[in-house]
Amino acid sequence: MNPLNFANVKVGFPVVQAALSGYSDWPMRVIARRLGAPYTICEVMLDKFVMEVSRGTKVRRLLRVTEEEHPVGAQLMGSEPKDFGPAARHLVSAGFDVVDINFGCPVKKVLGRCRGGFHLSQPPVALEIVRRVRDAVPGNVPVTVKMRRGIDDSEESRDKFFEILTGAYELGVAAVTVHGRTVLQRYNGPSRWEFLGEVKNHVGDGVVLGSGDLFSPQACLDMIAQTGVDGVTVARGAIGNPWIFAQAQALAKGEPLPDPPSLSQQREVIGEHYRLAEEVYGERRAGRLMRKFGIKYSRLHPDGIQVRDAFVQVHQNSDWLQVLERWYAEDRPGVHPPAEPEKAGTPGGGECADAA
Prior knowledge:
Elements: E1 4-6, E2 9-12, E3 15-17, H1 26-34, E4 40-41, E5 45-46, H2 47-52, H3 57-62, E6 72-77, H4 81-94, E7 98-103, H5 108-112, H6 123-136, E8 143-148, H7 155-170, E9 175-179, H8 193-203, E10 208-211, H9 217-227, E11 231-234, H10 244-252, H11 263-281, H12 283-297, H13 304-312, H14 317-327
Parallel strand pairs: 3-11, 4-6, 5-6, 6-7, 7-8, 8-9, 9-10, 10-11
Antiparallel strand pairs: 1-2
Helix pairs in contact: 1-11, 4-6, 6-7, 9-10, 11-12, 12-13, 12-14
């Protein structure tokens, strides 16, 4: 596979971690990087939030970047073009290597506030946002865009999508990520991979990443092979399964699919993930916030249902340790998580379900 680059930012292996609202915080990104993700993106942030509460505890956690993460991107969302430029500069000052603009969020409350996927209905505004961000940040900082394939499947929506897509490259974006569902689809139904092939053919040498229904390492390679995109961003498929990146790299080398991590390997990673979360959020909040990750990690356990139920009961540090002692003390083989989407309609860490 050809290495993935965003202009001067060298990424490498073309399977990366997507922005996951409520999930891709600093602890998750660090774990993913250590286990093979060549690039990750911070959970989406509102432009006004970045600027108005830039000194608050919450934004310090969201803007946390450490040396081992580079390259790392930050995703920005908002409604008014004038607010994007200052926020983008602030993200660069915080240490992010790439600024990604969210034109893909399908959540109703976001659309109702004219953010995210709503911009696919108004190309002039979307392109003004791209221009302001590109003009605001240094030339060596790549600007990328995340889109869905349109508001809906109408011809008008398709025309607006390609107007924004073409205009974004003309304004100097380094890459565009396209999700194969429409905004109105949200997380329901299959992602149309064939549309990604149309996009790649349309932009030629422009860097395109694909997204949608990537729940196994083989699916990541299949999307690249079938559509010709330059890379893929793994979203829900990476929650609780940071091993997916190294597994995809092994398959790309022609090696067999690696065995799933054993319970001792899982325990080590889960324990470190919790330690990092405690470092950021403190002991009081870490247990409750990490519960959602534990539920996802349980899919790799041979007794997944019981382990999931145990993680559901976690509220504090002692509860977390009890689950590890009860269910991960014996080193047994793990299992691969289901290579299929979760129940339709449940974001489970989608593009912006819990956007700040």
